[in-house]
Amino acid sequence: MGAGGGGRSRVLVLRALGLGDLLAGVPALRGLRRAFPGWEIVLAGPEALAGPVAASGAVDRLLPASAPGRAVPTRLDWTGPPPELAVDLHGSGPSSHLLLARLRPRRLWAFAHPGTPAITGPEWRADEHERERWCRLLGFHGVAADPGDLRLAPPAGPSPAPGAVVLHPGADAGSRRWPAERYAAVAGELLRRGHRVALTGGPGEDGLLGRVVSALPPGPRPLVYAGGLPYPELAALSAGAAAVVSGDTGIAHLAVAYGTPSVTLFGPVSPRRWGPPPGTRHIALWRPGPPGEPSGDPHGQDPDPRLLRLRPEDVLKALDEHPEVVRP
């Protein structure tokens, strides 16, 4: 898809990442929408995220762009005059800076980096929360954005499993993937208590869901949504759930966006950087180690030691004590 602007001034925003990344960037996108109400806002990101991009209410056009992993795309299919403003919400640079700079925007907003000394911006802080980081970038340029402006409007369709406790064992990286047998222990106990339980996974995670089901004790079985639900169904399932239990991945951010009670299991990355907003609705479980323990790799292959310190009883206790989880 090109980026024809129909004569309007255009803002091009780069955030060619995953679902959780997009949702963490919604406050910044909405800040841009308020600051440039008559301009066309174009988001360069994966085509698969068209649903949540539209639900944000902050973007006029999606310009498909992606790369393996969290890499920067090699090119953008931009047509017409250069954007009036390009905003790098993708990373710290310089690769993402240079990708946007090649389009010759009139202004380019990004974090300062020695590899792109011509760009004036604030200093990157590695330990900053993701939502606050991008709002601070806009604030540097005089645009107000509220890191708490996260909520999405309710999905149009009904949930395929209203009132279920949704367990999502998958994640993009093994370091954020809690063992399947522990999800099975949680699911089995919830089913024994009379909860409706739904298992979800992303594309390519059917084998993982199968391992969870195989490890269940005898008794009631969960609903299994294999193959990766299309976004409208996943959004409706999350919005209509009694609770969402997952690792630090996209569906955890979706639960926050829809105000669904959630329990999120953190491992390599502290919830101070990627966790839910404060309050009792969204519970972040994390077991940091002793001082001096090496930092975790959020993109590593093996489950992080901090994640493995969490036991099924920790998750069940969090659900038991949650003030908003409806009991069967």
TrEMBL record:
Keyword annotations: Glycosyltransferase, Transferase
Region (Disordered): 277-307
One Pfam family cited in the UniProt record for this chain: Glyco_transf_9
Keyword Transferase: yes
Protein name: Glycosyltransferase family 9 protein
Phylogenetic classification of the source organism: Bacteria, Bacillati, Actinomycetota, Actinomycetes, Kitasatosporales
